[in-house]
Amino acid sequence: MLERISLKIGEFLGLLAFYLWRSRRRIALNALRETLRVMPLNPSLSPEEITKEMFRNLGRSLVEILRLYAGDRSLLKKVEFRGLEHFWRAKEESKGIIFLTGHCGNWELMAISFGALIEPIGVVARPLNNRFLNRIIEKIRTRYGNHVIYKKGAVKEILRDLRMNRAVGILMDQSVSKKEGVVINFLGRPAWTSRMPGLIARKTGAVVLPAFIKRSGMGHIVEIGERIELKGLEPEDIKRLSEPIERFILSNPSEWLWIHRRWKKRD
Questions:
Q1: Distance between CA 217 and CA 193 in Å, rounded?
Q2: What percent of the residues of the chain are helix, what percent strand, and what percent coil, each to the nearest 5?
Q3: Which residue from 218, 174, 212 is spatially nearest to 10, judged by alpha carbons?
Q4: What are the two backbone dihedrals, phi and then psi, of residue 257, each rounded to the nearest 5 degrees?
Q5: Can the peptide bond before residue 253 be classed as cis, meaning omega within 30 degrees of 0?
């Protein structure tokens, strides 16, 4: 009962953000309209319906993370893992693992639950501008066993973790600068995309596994996919790394963070 109430509170907060956070609502709606011009989404909802449900999901996720911050571990019991055999098989190679994902579902919960229930991992993140909020988020991320790798100077820490046959989670669905990435086709439109996961995988031989979380009733499903074979570092290779994110979005459009300016132009 309490869990249902907390999710309803999250939905209310999400809807409040939908109506009040007009600048981000506009970004999401424009991105969805442009995407729907070039490819269909499933289910075939309107941009307004998808955006509203996305904000509801953000509200639900916020409440869930606050519960974890308060020490409520009951949420972890409702996370189901699928595809763990890919993870354990990769561990046998002893070259480390790169989990590739995006801002899909409750991505923070995915990392936390994996660290708490399976094995602690390194989480690559950009620090928030607000130091107070950043300390809170860092505490949540590390409370259940994981450690944070901030993007400034991240490569050295990532390489260290991979040498120790640990797993590192990297979000690969945000726009990056020209010096950091290449242009690939993302959801039917050109977008600057990070080369870092590919560079590190090629340098270390680490196994690259896609991982995503989505809502299922009152719980969540974390699905780990088969390894992504990387032949080089050309745009088509980086595209191959990004394709699992696109597939997730096409099937679960309201569970992706459309408020980010993914197709931002770079000078």
A1: 33
A2: 50, 20, 30
A3: 218
A4: -85, 80
A5: no
Tokens of 90: 């990769």
For residue range 23-55, list pLDDT tens digits in order.
Answer: 999 999 999 999 999 988 877 789 999 999 999
The 3 state secondary structure assigned to 190-209 is EEEEECHHHHHHHHHCCEEE
Residues in CB range of 169: below 8 A, 6 or more apart: 99, 101, 111, 121, 122, 123, 124, 211
pLDDT in tens, 190-219: 999 999 999 999 999 999 999 999 999 999
pLDDT for 2 beyond 80: no
Cα(102)–Cα(106) distance, integer angstroms: 10
Say how far apart CA 42 and CA 98 lie, in whole Å: 28
Cβ–Cβ < 8 Å for 96, 54 = no
- Residue carrying structure tokens 């993007």: 151
